[in-house]
What does this fold into?
Amino acid sequence: MLVVETKNEVRSLVDSWREAGERVALVPTMGALHEGHLSLVDVVRAHATRVVATIFVNPLQFAPGEDFDTYPRDFEGDLSKLKKRGCDACFTPERASLFADDFSTTVSVAGVGENHCALTRPHFFDGVATIVTKLLMITRPDIAVFGEKDFQQLAVIRRFVRDLDIDVEIVGAPIVRESDGLAMSSRNLYLSGSERAAAPALFKALSAAADAARNALWADIGVQVEADLRAAGFSKVDYVHLVDRDSLVDIDRADRPARILAAAWMGETRLIDNVAAGPTRND
Ligand code: AMP
It folds into this structure.
């Protein structure tokens, strides 16, 4: 696996592959890789002949006081996992090479980027949209893959790629979970033993809510889910919303393809998860 640090190098590499008729996929990550990240490599393998991962802890998506400094980092371990998984290259840019001192441009997505997670993390999607735009412009892949674990993020990326006519196919990949249902996340490393034991309650509550949503109004179910999460040890529930699967607009009954999105705090750790609801739940 080639490890590439500069913009010029990665761009020439991808260009040379594309000129040779190869189809190149991009897998952007912030590192501390787990099976969820690595599954993205497998998913795009079905669509591409070359896979380029990126590892960059993006400062733009952390607000002051959030966990940028303590975010888990395991660079050598990550490279060895990507290599074993058959990745062709890994782009690991230096922060200074991406952001000039007077860097001053933001990609901001209205609507789909303004509710749910944005209510408590207003800076977040601008940070994601800006760095993903840069990574797509630098590497110019045919296809890029993002996990449904970050369902709103995937919707935001699909929206700005369409709106800005960026010539790339965006593919969503299913959520990879631990055997007890907890969605894999680099931040699960923050959980203490007892927090880790309690955390699968998030997926359980969302799954039960998706079943209940077949026959009841969301207003009643949502209140119950929040109460169940608190009873299971979550200290704070940022939100639990039933939304239209494509527009992410809040809806009050699951009478169309829908998603239940949630963010809740287990101690000092904010966990997010989501499940399908509505007619396509068991597809
Ligand atoms: P991150 O390093 O957290 O920015 O994640 C990089 C990519 O991996 C994003 O597209 C995430 O949605 C995806 N991802 C993270 N965790 C999972 C998971 N448990 N299942 C599937 N994809 C995931």
